């Protein structure tokens, strides 16, 4: 798995939500109340208000739907989209 998926996802979330509201033990939260949690360790996210989440590719599908996944992935520091895609699929299945 790509070791930087969590940081790529965090950068994407900051672009979408702004600065995090809290950070602890590898979990970064956005919004108040239930909000959104990013797990930096495994590169996953969950929106408690919308009851949806997943891996990096799911985040791209949700928040950058009109853009090519490869372009978004590279914009946020991903160097090999296929590696990220495979890791994202693996993580998505394991959730």
Structural features, described:
With 95 residues, the chain is of the alpha+beta class. Helix content is 44%, strand content 19%. It has helices at 5-17, 56-63, 69-75, 81-94; strands at residues 22-24, 27-30, 36-39, 44-47, 52-54. A five-stranded antiparallel β-sheet has the order 1-2-3-4-5. It starts with a helix and ends with a helix. Mean pLDDT is 82; it is low at 89-95.
The largest pleated sheet is described as: 5 strands, antiparallel
SSE succession: HEEEEEHHH
Q: What ranges have pLDDT less than 50 throughout 5 or more consecutive residues? A: 89-95
Q: What is the count of β-strands?
A: 5
- Could you give the order of strands across the largest sheet? 1-2-3-4-5
| First and last CA, distance | 15 Å
Topology:
Elements: H1 5-17, E1 22-24, E2 27-30, E3 36-39, E4 44-47, E5 52-54, H2 56-63, H3 69-75, H4 81-94
Antiparallel strand pairs: 1-2, 2-3, 3-4, 4-5
Helix pairs in contact: 1-2
How would you summarize this macromolecular structure in one to three sentences?
With 95 residues, this protein is α+β, with helices and mostly antiparallel strands. 44% of the residues lie in helices and 19% in strands. A hairpin with a 2-residue loop joins strand 1 and strand 2.
Key descriptive features of the protein:
95 residues; alpha+beta; 4 helices; globular
């Amino acid at each position: 798995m790509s070791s930087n998926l969590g940081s790529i996802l965090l950068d994407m979330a900051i672009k979408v939500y702004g600065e995090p509201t809290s950070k602890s033990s590898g979990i970064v939260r956005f919004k108040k109340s239930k909000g959104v949690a990013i797990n930096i360790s495994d590169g996953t996210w969950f929106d408690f208000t919308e009851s949806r989440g997943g891996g990096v590719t799911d985040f791209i599908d949700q928040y950058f739907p009109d853009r090519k996944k490869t372009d978004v992935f590279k914009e946020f520091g991903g160097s090999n989209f296929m590696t990220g895609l495979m890791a994202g699929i693996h993580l998505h299945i394991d959730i």
